[in-house]
Specification:
Layout (H helix, E strand, L loop, with lengths): L19 H46 L4 H9 L6 E8 L5 E14 L3 E14 L4
Antiparallel strand pairs: 1-2, 2-3
Helix pairs in contact: 1-2
């Protein structure tokens, strides 16, 4: 059995590519890779923000018991995660009825094709002091 052949002059002849797929890939690939690198970097920044917020919450809870331990708890919570340069500030203590603590971290990130960027992350948490 012979396969049917298109008639001469019909528009159903095989397509001629002449390398246009390779040219399109060369245009789209760098843009796709750049978007991929940016997404991975933003996920890392979001992950660090979650760790910073969790440390602020834990340190405010510890500060409600003993205000001197608040910043040490934040530093200990973030020692396993390279969060960058950490600044701890106790905004309110138990004399105001609640402990309010502010954390700020400055961390450099390296984004391929875009270079190094510095991101400042901040988190604030408060915890009601127990009645004594």
């Amino acid at each position: 059995m012979n396969p049917r052949r298109p008639a001469p002059g019909s528009p159903c002849r095989g397509s001629v590519d002449n390398g246009s797929a390779a040219a399109e890939f060369a245009i789209v690939a760098p843009i796709f890779l750049l978007l991929l690198f940016i997404m991975v970097t933003l996920a890392s920044v979001f992950f660090d923000q979650l760790h910073l917020q969790s440390a602020a919450r834990d340190s405010a809870r510890a500060g409600a018991i003993d205000i001197a331990d608040a910043c040490a708890v934040a530093q200990a919570a973030l020692d396993t995660n390279d969060i960058g340069t950490l600044t701890c500030n106790v905004v309110n203590d138990c004399n105001a009825g609640a402990v309010k603590l502010s954390l700020q971290a400055v961390k450099p990130y390296s984004v391929p094709l875009l270079g190094n960027r510095t991101v400042t992350l901040s988190a604030t948490s408060s915890f009601v002091c127990p009645q004594s």
